[in-house]
Amino acid sequence: MNKAKVRVRVPASTANLGPGFDSLGMALNLYAWIEMSRSETTSIHLYGDHMDQVPTDKTNLIYKVAQMVFAEAEVECPDLEISVYSDIPLTRGLGSSASAIVGALAAANQLIGSPLSADKLFQMSSALEKHPDNVGASLFGGIIAAYWDGERAEYIKIEPKPNLKVLVAIPEFHLSTDKARKVLPDYVPLKDAVFNVSHTSLLVAALCSGRYDYIRHAMKDVLHQPYRAQLIPGMTTILDKATDFGALGVALSGAGPTLLALVDADSGHKSNLEHFLLETLQAEEVSARTMWLKPSLTGVEVLTSWDEQRSFLDNIIHGEMPPANKGESVGKMGGSY
Ligand code: HSE
User: Fold this and answer.
1) Ligand 1: distance of its center to the CA of 16 in Å?
2) Is the CB of 221 under 6 A from ligand 1?
3) Residue 97 domain-assigned?
4) Of all atoms in ligand 1, which is nearest to the CA of residue 22?
5) For residue 55, how many C-alpha atoms fall within 13 Å in the half-sphere facing its CB?
6) How far, in Å, are 56, 97, 124, 128 from residue 61 at the CA level?
7) pLDDT in tens, 80-134
8) Quick one: which of 109, 179, 171, 98 has its CA closest to 132?
9) Whole domain around residue 237: which residue ranges?
10) Closest Cα to atom 6, ligand 1: which residue?
11) Which atom of ligand 1 lies closest to the CA of 180?
12) What is the Cα–Cα distance from 331 to 130, expressed in whole angstroms?
């Protein structure tokens, strides 16, 4: 059934988890909300601190992706009213564009009565991003092991144990995925490929079995991080030493510049680790802030408990939803993929 107005909430994500380049992703409990309805003319309202450069005309990514859904479903819906609020920083390696794509796909599909399957949305989003790690995590939640071979994407979701926490150090500067991919070589030696295949295999096994004591070894990578280190001052020191300060393992988050440490919530050392990350970046004159997060076990969700008397922002701030960036667990609030 067609809906007059729909709202979705979509999580941020981290990609690669070190060696799983373009194939491992994890959803994080940092969110964006999208409201979408049909309209006589298109209007796009953006809220939050991260929206300065985002267009509000028909070049907007959410608008364009929604039109792809309508085209795929052979439905005409040229004009939309869209409101977006996001806590996800842009171009920092936390999957903001994947969240926008997944949120737009889910909202547009719901608006026209959900003719497209979750698998179809996964195929469309993987083809748009050209890798399935961020979009898979934002769509399905948890940890995603996935591939996209240029035609089809496949994935398996892994549920992290409840004690897995995530500390991110988010530098103030922006780094586009495009720029961070341009520093990578076209070819790598066989021994580097073997290094990453074996470490990714061990990492997936460690995450599935809960053998988090292996993560410190398994998160090592030679395929992309050593090349990207030139773009992120302090990164090499952090990758080398964060486990000495209590991290289970550490990696560049996606294409960066955010650095991400996995942490056992039951262990000590937490403030030591936070200080180490910030001081290492500060020593390189990189301003950054840290944020404690958790894996988001759910992916994009269609929100059903919405107070129509309240504004879009009021619903997010005062409604059922707990503040996403406080690292609290978030329950399910409607249909999810
Ligand atoms: N896997 C991607 C990369 C994630 O590392 O370039 C960024 O979107």
Assistant:
1) 7
2) no
3) yes
4) 1
5) 9
6) 9, 8, 14, 11
7) 999 999 999 999 999 999 999 999 999 999 999 999 999 999 999 999 999 999 9
8) 98
9) 164-294
10) 255
11) 6
12) 31
Claim to verify: residue 29 and residue 64 sit in the same structural domain = yes
Token pair belonging to 223: 């395929």
d(C-alpha 318, C-alpha 337), whole Å: 25
Would the CB of 22 count as within 6 Å of ligand 1? Answer: yes
Compute the distance from residue 94 Cα to the ligand 1 centre, in Å: 10
**How would you classify residue 30: left for phi > 0, otherwise alpha for psi between -120 and 50, otherwise beta?**
beta
- Render 211-258 in DSSP notation, one character per residue: -GGGHHHHT--SSSHHHHGGGSTTHHHHHHHGGGGT-SEEEE-TTSS-
* 132, 153 contact by CB (below 8 A): yes
203-233 per-position pLDDT tens digit: 999 999 999 999 999 999 999 999 999 999 9
Q: Which spans in 38-145 are helix H?
A: 61-72, 96-111, 118-129, 133-140
* In a shared domain, residues 63 and 155: yes
- Together in a domain, 239 and 255: yes
Ligand 1 centroid to residue 255 C-alpha, Å: 5
pTM of structure = 0.92
Residue 306 Cα to ligand 1 midpoint, Å, equals 34
- Count of other CB atoms within 10 angstroms of residue 79: 12
